[in-house]
């Protein structure tokens, strides 16, 4: 007897779409570079079932036939890539979130058989080269008009998902590859112990992580909101991690630090509905000098550690707002 199947999920699109935008305001230039990933879903399934061998029962005998290939409803992904470049040229990329919304809205308006459009964007940021009192510059700090250096301290990300059945898209902003370290005010003590636990209490340790953070804003946000809040979230992650510039702030564990950062961000940005953070615990183990019995090992202000990223402790948390009843 022939087996029956159903198509439960599907999408298609294009990955690694590269785009760079240069804006020239006289001699002053600005460059933005992005990598994008486009996903689309269509109402029909003709393109998936065309050419399939189908079995059916006729007069108690099993017969087979092939469905004729039919791509008539399939939207060309290459054309959608060209659409992205044209929209960037005509409207500009004011923020990744605003541009993703523009593209998804355009695709759903243009193609009546498209049920979902999703654009994921990663910002490859360029900063202007600055000069500090050299190169015959009279000012203390001056920015070059048209020369840039790549900013590699972290990456800005966003994902815009628009379903035809919804009134507005879902917009998720984010930060990734924000690597942070502290060499004091970090400990790990008082944790649960059993027969399998050999780790001792650590009262003073190096704490390092590589932050991935995403958040969702309320409906009606503008590109100015997206840009302002992204910068604020990044700055608050960094400042909450370090604390006071002289005294610092104690981290009893990565979970506590993660929750402190998320709470600070939500309290300061009422537009954010919820925030998610992944903060792996990257290990910097103390080098063991005790095995060198015959050598003089100096002790003092310097310590030596071995960075090791595998295995690592994966710490995740999501913080959202409670809905208050009126």
UniProtKB/TrEMBL annotation:
Keywords: Oxidoreductase, Peroxisome, Purine metabolism. The keyword Oxidoreductase applies. GO terms for molecular function: urate oxidase activity. SUPFAM superfamilies: Tetrahydrobiopterin biosynthesis enzymes-like. One of its GO terms (cellular component) is peroxisome. Gene3D superfamilies: Urate Oxidase (3.10.270.10). Its EC number is 1.7.3.3. It catalyses: urate + O2 + H2O = 5-hydroxyisourate + H2O2. GO terms for biological process: purine nucleobase catabolic process; urate catabolic process. Its main location: other. O2 binds at residue 281. Urate binds at residues 188, 255, 281. Belongs to the uricase family. PANTHER family: URICASE (PTHR42874:SF1). This is Uricase. It comes from Clunio marinus.
């Amino acid at each position: 007897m022939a087996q029956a199947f159903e198509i439960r999920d599907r999408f298609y699109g294009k990955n690694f779409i590269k785009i760079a935008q240069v804006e020239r305001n006289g001699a002053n230039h600005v460059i933005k570079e992005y990598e994008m990933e486009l996903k689309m879903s269509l109402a029909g399934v003709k393109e998936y079932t065309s050419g399939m061998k189908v079995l059916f029962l006729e007069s108690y005998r099993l017969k087979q036939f092939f469905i004729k290939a039919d791509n008539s409803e399939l939207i060309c992904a290459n054309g959608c890539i060209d659409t992205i470049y044209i929209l960037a040229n005509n409207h500009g990329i004011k923020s990744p979130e605003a541009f993703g919304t523009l593209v998804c809205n355009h695709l759903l308006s243009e193609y009546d058989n498209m049920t979902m459009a999703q654009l994921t964007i990663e910002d490859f940021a360029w900063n202007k080269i600055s000069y500090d009192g050299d190169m015959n510059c009279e000012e203390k700090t001056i920015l070059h008009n048209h020369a840039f250096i790549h900013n590699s301290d972290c990456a800005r990300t966003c994902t815009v998902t628009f379903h035809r059945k919804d009134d507005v898209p879902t917009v998720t902003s984010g930060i990734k590859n924000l690597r942070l370290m502290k060499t004091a005010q970090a400990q790990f003590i008082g944790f649960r112990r059993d027969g399998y636990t050999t780790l001792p209490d650590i009262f003073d340790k190096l704490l390092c992580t590589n932050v991935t953070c995403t958040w969702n804003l309320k409906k009606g946000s503008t590109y100015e909101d997206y840009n302002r809040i992204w910068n604020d979230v990044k700055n608050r992650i960094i400042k909450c991690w370090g604390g006071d510039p002289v005294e610092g702030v104690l981290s009893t564990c990565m979970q506590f630090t993660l929750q402190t950062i998320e709470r600070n961000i939500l309290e300061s940005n009422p537009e954010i509905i919820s925030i998610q953070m992944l903060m792996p615990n990257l290990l910097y183990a103390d080098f063991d000098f005790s095995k060198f019995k015959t050598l003089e090992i100096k002790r003092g202000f310097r310590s030596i550690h071995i960075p090791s990223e595998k295995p690592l402790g994966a710490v995740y948390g999501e913080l959202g707002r409670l809905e208050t009843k009126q």
